[in-house]
Amino acid sequence: MPDTLIIPSRQQGEASITAPVLFFVNPGDAAPIINEARRRNAKKHFLFHSNLFEIPGQPACFWAGPALGAPAAVMVLEKLIALGCKNVIVHGWCGSLVPGLKAGEVFLPTWALSEEGTSAHYPLAIRPAAHEGMRRRLAGFLQQREYSVQAGPIWTTDGPYRETRQKVQEYGSQGIMAVDMEFSALCTVAAYRSVNLAAALLVSDELYHPAWRPIYMSKSFKKKSLEIFLALSRFACNAA
Asked: 146-188, pLDDT tens digit by residue?
């Protein structure tokens, strides 16, 4: 008998996922993505505190989100896996810790330094990391479409308002290139449940300057975020 009391499961009438899932975590992306799902006559399935859309096509795929922060994102991922998901592509935003990674570029995390509290509940002997094969295929797909793509380690934190200058400098000097709120936990759960996961994050702000430089409120950034999401959807559908 499992030690845990609550086992993620598919309930009667819930979706059965038989294709890759594109999981957008940021609420700032939600409105245009939901509008696009409706435009495509997507079937909406119940997903408690989030959304799950079945996108018609040959082949079909699924969109899920948003779920900001490690605990909420892991709850969604656990449910997606219980519904049958085996392959997940995460779309989100991240901050840059190093001058070589600029706002507006696409960052593909390789592995993560975890400063979030969720992944500790999933005991693993390995560090959180993207599925290498999927990440490489994703990088090639985006580069073929002329996106500026970089890859490297990321710092995942539960405390975005405690991203101190000291930590930015320390982690940046160690080669950690970016910061987000979900990746390490999502990778940990994916490995624990034996599913494949990789992420493509749009750089929304730069933290390495004396003063913080965000761009995520601009119309051009929001437009690019949706554009990348739709490109990732083509990747997900073709990965079915």
From this structure: 999 999 999 999 999 999 999 999 999 999 999 999 999 999 9
Domains along the chain?
21-233 (3.40.50.1580)
Alpha-carbon dihedral 10, 86, 155, 76, rounded to 10 degrees: -20
For residue 25, the one-letter residue type is V
**Rounded (10°) angle between helices 183-192 and 70-82:** 30
Which residue pairs, CB below 8 angstroms and at least 24 apart, start in 123-131? 124/188, 124/191, 124/192, 126/191, 128/156, 128/183, 128/184, 128/185, 128/187, 128/188, 128/191, 129/187, 129/191, 130/187, 130/197, 130/198, 130/199, 131/190, 131/196, 131/197, 131/198
CA 47, CA 86: separation in Å to the nearest integer?
17
Query: For residue 196, what are the CA distances in angstroms to 7, 82, 89, 234?
Result: 20, 14, 9, 17
Secondary structure of residue 179 in the 3-state scheme: strand
Parallel, antiparallel, or unpaired for β 149-157 and 178-180?
A: parallel
CA distances to 30, 120, 151 from 156, rounded to whole Å, are: 21, 13, 15
Q: How far apart are the first and last CA of the chain?
A: 33
